[in-house]
Amino acid sequence: MKTSFSRRNVLKSGLAAMGGMALSSHISLGAFSARSFPLDSENRLYYSPLLREHFLEERPNVPAMLARLNANENPYGPPESARKAVAESVSGGNRYSWKELATLVDMLASKEGVTKEHIMMGPGSSDLLEKVALVLFAKGGNIVSADPTYMSLIRVAEAVGATWKAVPCKSDWTHDLKAMEAAIDSNTKMVYICNPNNPVGTIMAANELMDFCSRVSTKVPVFIDEAYLELAEGDTASMVSLLAQKKNVIVARTFSKIMGMAGLRVGYAVAQPEFLSKIEKITRGGMGICHTSVLGAIASLQDKEFQAMTKRLNTQCKNYLYQELSALGYKYIPSYTNFVIFPIKMDGKTFLSKMASKGVMVRSFDMLNKPYCRVSIGTMAEMEFFVTSLKELA
């Protein structure tokens, strides 16, 4: 039996909506006040990954944040190599960093096996997702994606006049590629695939996704968001190799996850040069990335030891969480990312409020009309604290 989703039910949680608003770079944070965000019964801000530090800590009787597990951040980064590079680069902050950016682009082109003309830089991959949406959907059309999925590109597409053709995930929470292909019509301007998928953490079999992207990209562009791919274990493969076959695919990568540079804002897209030329009409490539971040990215990219450590510790902490959730009777969705989602036994707002009172920040989603907690993988100490706090709610 196929699952049934609606846009309202999948991400109807007020906290998820506010999170999406806060995370969208095209919305001015200055437009919001502390009162704009939903509060719990004790007048605490119960969710905002970007604004909590500005508002929550200033309120009376609010505990300190002891485990920040709500934004899928890398708890170990940036690596020491990047920190050193950033510190040393500050003195050059009075100059534009085109030369250094060109070096980074050359490194990424070599890493991905493409020419530098196939690379577009941006301040985080979400910025590039949103700019693609601005260009492709300026005159309407529709976008096909799984439901649930990461909403950044979709929300911007809708904001400029597009419609979202949401295709429910299969019963195992993977993309229903057959149904997604069937949903394509004459007004479809893009298919969006987040792989591994946020917020559920699932991944598509590499050969199945490769076949889909190869075939469908001859009809419409296929955007594959691979923000979490480098953290995944098992049957994984980037779709970048399809570019050599002249397929119209766009692959997004970020330095925010395995590289530990979420706050330094560096990401890139890999696509056909003719596609990127369309996006260049509203962006100047890496102009939005500061000099220090470029130098940090160069160092981080070369720090293979840090990347391997992040992946190893992420897997260890995730396996610990799996064991503890199973012992408590929670049926989690196996994850290929640095987060795990599982159904909870109370409504999301109440759950978040109770966890916040213990100094633990997580996310809540409604899927199939059931509340779920999405917890990011932190350090082992943070995961142990999360589990202890979870047990106290049982």
From TrEMBL:
User: Matching Pfam families, A to Z?
Assistant: Aminotran_1_2
Using the record, list the residue span of the signal peptide; answer none if the entry has no such feature. none
Keyword Transcription regulation belongs to the record = no
Q: Say yes or no: keyword Transferase present.
A: yes
* Chain ranges of the Aminotransferase class I/classII large domain: 68-389
> What PANTHER family does this protein's entry cite?
HISTIDINOL-PHOSPHATE AMINOTRANSFERASE, HISTIDINOL-PHOSPHATE AMINOTRANSFERASE 2
The name under which this protein is listed is: Histidinol-phosphate transaminase
- Species of origin reads Aquirufa aurantiipilula
Q: What is the lineage of its organism?
A: Bacteria, Pseudomonadati, Bacteroidota, Cytophagia, Cytophagales
